[in-house]
Amino acid sequence: MTRVFRPLLTRNNRVANLTIVLLLTFGLGAAALLSAALDRFLLHPLDVPHPETLVRAIERHPRHQLGMVPL
């Protein structure tokens, strides 16, 4: 196993090093984006003066399989 990866992990292999750095950068950026989105949308309430006044309206329609269509 080490014989396979040893040529990739040398200091002179710039393509492999750049690929590793880019993958780590994109992975960390995606994790930060997901963490920020979850924090904003799931952990913080809506910025509405009276959130108890929000309602959800649905309409029953006989042609649809599920029977409910959001408005």
Describe this structure in words.
- By secondary structure, the protein is mainly alpha-helical.
- The chain has one domain (2-70).
- The protein is built from 2 helices and 2 strands, in the order ααββ.
- It has helices at residues 2-5, 14-43, and strands at residues 58-60, 68-70.
- Strands 1-2 form a two-stranded antiparallel sheet.
- β1 (58-60) and β2 (68-70) form a beta hairpin.
- The radius of gyration is 25 Å and the shape is elongated.
- The mean pLDDT is 79.
Widest sheet, order of strands:
1-2
Helix % is 40-55%
Average pLDDT confidence is: 79
Low-confidence blocks of residues: none
- Strand coverage percent: 5-15%
- Give the domain tally: 1
Order of helices and strands: HHEE
Largest sheet: 2 strands, antiparallel
Radius of gyration, CA atoms, in whole angstroms? 25 Å
Shape verdict? elongated
Q: How many beta-strand segments?
A: 2
Distance between the termini: 58 Å
Tally of separate helices:
2
Which structural class best describes the helix and strand composition? mainly alpha
